[in-house]
Amino acid sequence: MLQTDISFKRIQQLAIPAIISGIAEPVLSATDAAVVGNIKEFGIESLAAVGIVGSFLSALIWILGQTRSAISAIVSQNLGAGKLKDLNNFPAQAIYFNIALSIIVLFSTYFFVEEIFKLLNAEGLILTFSIDYYNIRVWGFPLTLFTFAVFGLFRGLQNTFWPMIIATIGAALNIGLDFALVYGIEGYILPMGIKGAAWASLVSQAVMAIMALIFLLKKTEISLKLKFPLHPEIKRLVNMSFNLFLRSVALNTALILATREAADLGKEYIAAHTIAFNIWIFTAFFIDGYGAAGNILGGKLLGERNYSSLWKLTKKVNLYNLGVAAMLVLIGLLLYEPLGFLFNKDEKVLSIFYGMFFMVLICLPFNALAFTLDSIFKGLGEMGYLRNVLLGATVFGFIPVLYFSKYMHWGLIGIWAALIVWVAYRAVALLIKFRRKYIPLIGN
Questions:
Q1: How far apart are CA 379 and CA 293, in angstroms?
Q2: Is residue 389's pLDDT more than 70?
Q3: What are the phi and psi torsion angles at 393 (to 5°)?
Q4: Is 443 strand, coil or helix?
Q5: pLDDT above 90 as % of the chain
Q6: What's the sign of the alpha-carbon dihedral 406, 52, 281, 336?
Q7: Omega before residue 17 within 30° of 0, cis
Q8: Are the C-beta atoms of residues 179 and 192 closer than 8 Å to each other?
């Protein structure tokens, strides 16, 4: 059997398309935020609503979207072990599993949106806008989960090109529709405000899901015909997904608490936090591209039991991502003023944002290590350990710092200090685990 190629060229072939496809979801949310934040009337309230709903929807997507990583890990490990043909009816079962989960969550939140957003400190016009925006965007949730499952299959097959094409077209369509539907086109489309942004995202998600279906059927031999009995790997998928579910609950508890505390400071503060968060999420998914390469190749190397190459791969992708983080920090230092102005023109909002943006930049090198190792560990199937790390980072890192900073009246800087501690905790814990478990296996 040929050994897996972990050359610079091969890593770039996987990472660059993964970067482009990975940033599609944050581009959707960031475009919504930037466009509605510049509505002449109620721009601040619209931006705040998109921030609150965006954080909640991101939580749902990240919680259930983790099945993509589990699917990718199982497929890539079987590919490395030369057992790909044994998967037969697993892909279809995994996709339907994802869709069923998304429908359950959709209906469990749809009828309680007002209560949910009140818990996030939305009130008055911001609450009204949040409900309007969510009630449209939530129907794209099953579509996104289906697309993510297909992306997981492609990743497991060592292919990030088709997901890139799908995501790029979806993001471009969303940007065009945002401007057309939010502001309107004179003589053709009436301005729809924040509802227009929600419809733009929903249409884009539908187009991406249709394209994912077409590419899956045309570019692979995978059938979507559901057959029984359940494949043995479904049990492992459910176990991995459950651990990732618990992990993502902890992850999103931190992000939602951060949003809630920002909203409690006032509408200008949640608007500034929304700008910072959208930039942070964009950089996180940008960084995740090399993590995806580590995920894809790492799972295959584990299937081959090639631990020496696994260690080399881990060093390479972490080094590349630290370089990416340094580049993003430099861009942030040079462009932070126009970045803020892109989202909102209110002087108080921008003043708050400019006063805390340095915290976002400090977080980026920690993101590079944490997110890269996180992706590699998903490829290795280490979902239980990832769960424990996130629980520890949230309970012992993020929450104590968040509420200590609140007691000290540090405002948004305190919230972002808690986020930095949270990410750094994860990076250190994953480094220790890799050194203890996988480096001793080299030569075995």
A1: 10
A2: yes
A3: -65, -35
A4: coil
A5: 40
A6: negative
A7: no
A8: no
